[in-house]
């Protein structure tokens, strides 16, 4: 019988893991099923562009995985029983079913995090998902000149959203609310460039400011003052999909699944976790942050570890590390902040038009990586060894 591998989620990490597994293992010995709620691959790193009115290239998953041997299942994951090794899914027509697995790759990712701030869920807009970005796009299209748009959160997502909107709609009054200093995680050169671009785009910045309430026409800040907002865009971080917390998998207080260096669950060795859902340690014993920069190599690591354990091969030991932070500042400007292995800014940066082109290449490369999970290297499919399917036994469980 075939060893059943189910991959949950076809974002960057899930799609890469599924494709890489298909290139590592013989099709007649494994059955790889990729479950995703939407039929298209979503370029999450471009959601600020979509919200600003730009049209993105459709990328049907059926075309991306054609001929790979990966079975695509368009359904919503509604439950995981990690002890019985089953996944509950609900199809578009409302029919519910269960999928048994021998190995599970959990890549359900994350969504926006309203941080429990009053009024956020009711009045704010998010760009962590395509539906959210499209909803914001529609609302922005209806705004008249001069109306205020407030972006709350000045991390990578917030900075990209504010600059994209300000460039696309110079007729709007765009403001950015930062809990700390603007770009305080960047190098001196990086901060200076960010401030320069933000100033040129006419963005008003409220630094060292916490938002305590969101209303339909304004946000309230910690000192009791208000900032007018016809539209509030909330970008204060991500919250992982809630399903993991409801399972018997070992999770953190944030709901992330605790894994080892091969992205394998510490509590359930037949489960691997990639992307934002994983609590994995990186260089310097620091948790990897939720990002494409760490998610993609983690997906390679997990897929190669699954393949190695199934085929009796050598486990991968390449560390997941950081090299740079790529920030788009509209379509004409960018900032590439080079960092240490554990994600601390160094003096070196790339700025301006060249940085914008660099970031565009990174975005295109991320999509290419989904369709080419082994980075163009020849496929090296290996044979599965031992009892693998239908027996409840995971090959190499003791490795």
TrEMBL record:
Protein keywords: FAD, Flavoprotein, Oxidoreductase
Database matches in PANTHER family: 64 KDA MITOCHONDRIAL NADH DEHYDROGENASE (EUROFUNG) (PTHR42913:SF3), APOPTOSIS-INDUCING FACTOR 1 (PTHR42913)
Domain annotation FAD/NAD(P)-binding: ranges: 4-303
UniProt similarity note: Belongs to the NADH dehydrogenase family.
Keyword Oxidoreductase belongs to the record: yes
Organism: Streptomyces tauricus
Signal peptide, first to last residue: none
InterPro entries to which the protein is assigned, alphabetical: FAD/NAD-bd_sf (IPR036188), FAD/NAD-binding_dom (IPR023753), NADH-Q_oxidoreductase (IPR051169)
Protein name: FAD-dependent oxidoreductase
Cofactors: FAD
